[in-house]
Write a structure and sequence with these properties.
mainly alpha, rod-shaped, 91% helix, 3 helices
Length: 140
Amino acid sequence: MPTASLEFTLFMNTAGVAQGMGRARKEVAAGLRGLAQAAKDESKRIEDALASITAFRELKKGVTDAKAEWVKAQTEATRLGAALNQVGPPTKAMVKEFEKAKKIAAEAQSKFQDQSVALNSLRTSMAAAGVSTTGLAATQ
């Protein structure tokens, strides 16, 4: 009889350990799933931030290039305007060339302004996402 009681006690303790291990395994698995999802979410956030940084750099370069084009076009239009004022009555070709230069300068200015607005919008959305653009400008 004492042997049967000991066997029953060992059997019950073994079952309790197995149940505890089963619960622990489920809890660990649930914790790992949570960690995997957190890692996936963080990876997505980092990918999005890197895409924003790439877009910012490209747009920043575009703004710089557009400003240079605008300044160049404006300088040419100013030069042609001054040349028209220095001669007698301008020819139709001179007036046409001046008007074309003014149009190119206006288009270049518009492109520069549009890209500047887009850059500022991207800068704002990046700041809202916790990505500072201050250091990005310094690394270019």
